[in-house]
Amino acid sequence: MTDMGINGLLFTFPDEDKARKVLEDGPWSVMGSILSLQPWEPQKSVFEVKFNLIPFWVQIHGVPLDVMNVKNVSKIASLIGEILLVENPLVEGKLLRTFFRVKIRKASGFLLQLWPNRTRAKVMQGAKSYDLFQPVSPPREQRKVRLGSFFAYALLKAISFLENNWQSLCEDIRSGKLSSFITDTSCRSGMSTVLSSPGPCLADEITKICSQNSWKGVLCHLWPKAKYIETVITGSMAQYVPSLQFYSDGKLPLACLWYASTECYFGINIKPLSDPADVAFTVLPNMGYFEFLPLGDNGTLLMNFEDQEHVPNDKLVNLENVKHGYFYEIVITTFAGLYRYRVGDVLQVVGFYHKTPQFRFICRKNVVISIDCDKTTEEDLHKSVTVAKKLLEPCDALLVEYTSYPDTSLIPGHYVLFWEILYCGSKMESRPPLDTNILQECCITVEEHLDTIYRRLRNKGVIGPLEIRVVETGTFEALMDLFINQGTSISQYKIQRCIKSDKALKLLNSKVTTSFYSPRLPKMGF
Fold first, then answer.
1. Nearest to 273 by CA among 243, 298, 252, 291
2. Which of 76, 257, 369, 433 has the fewest CB atoms below 10 angstroms from its CB?
3. Cβ contacts of residue 314 below 8 Å, gap of 6+?
4. What percentage of the chain exceeds 70 in pLDDT?
């Protein structure tokens, strides 16, 4: 396997038969995402290979038994996509099942379809004709039992995009034509199969839902049969739980099913519907060889984040020797060839399933904001911000995103938090301004929930008052676009909790609308 550097991979096989089998056994799914495999052709560069067509198996039900043959079913399947293979349920004159399986090649853009129209086909049996209505996929009331994305932030970004562009989407559905706003060729090609005819009724239904003053519970209205939301809600993603609960009106449980990275799968959540604060992952020992580096004094202290490039073998603990309540950095050796690779995740042992350890994800190890000898981790910052943002709730406002950086341009230096705030109860143009005292209290609340070392340095004047800079709506989307344009994968993107990029800092500061400082010193005995 070779990384081609264009969001693509080149797979090489020892012989043609094995390569053909992999292609024929598709489609393939990797960590919840479709893997589009296309054969490479001689005299063609990797940039010329098209990935907009994907093979799928489709079940066709409801065909009358007396017209149930390959020829008639092929007519139906041809309305969906290019037919690759039709399986005949009749074997030696016996009916093995009451439906057909057809393998088709379909434009990948159809996966974006919300509620497809039914397609019409006419099949023949002698002098008789039948009009069959076969859904391309199940009707709206039977679809979308699961909503989700890899990270919670990506799902909220999709909701934000819909909130800002639903009028344009409805116009496209109503007219049956894709707006000129969409310029990407592959996207237009894929969506051309979705917008095959005008859908005024569907457009009216979506308009009725999306034009409400508040989008509280909008997910349940758009997808009334949805049962749960599947996404990562641990670590820094935990801050998005209130926003997801707002858009689902608290009616859809949040399921965090697994713990994984680009290196390998680490564990699964055997209680997927547990409260987000109680999510724990049971290690999958067959995914690789797992070792653990105790943090602090044999794993009892979380705050000792001193980095060592080479970890002495005698400090590593294997899977069966971890201790309940201790903190560790995970180290893995994988089948793909990584040897004692430090992932950079901090975990805490919270229990055992039989003899298999269960871990709670705490934070990324290398996220630290510091002015002097203080060291504020991602977990510390998240806990303090979680308490402070509750002060916004009486104002019908939500903190949807934040990041930080240590401002040392002046003496003493101080912590700066960038906050993007969503006003839930009214349209943006009629939102009430937040009271200055509330934002100042947010500043001091954050400080009083940071550790003792920070508060001591604040009281001695070594660190200045914490500052919250409120930014415009959409600022963190612009920040994501900045990092993606610099090569970050959109599927793996996560907000940096401590900004170190000068370009990112410049963008954030250009979006600041107002600033607030802590009005007093934090209490030492808090």
1. 252
2. 433
3. none
4. 78
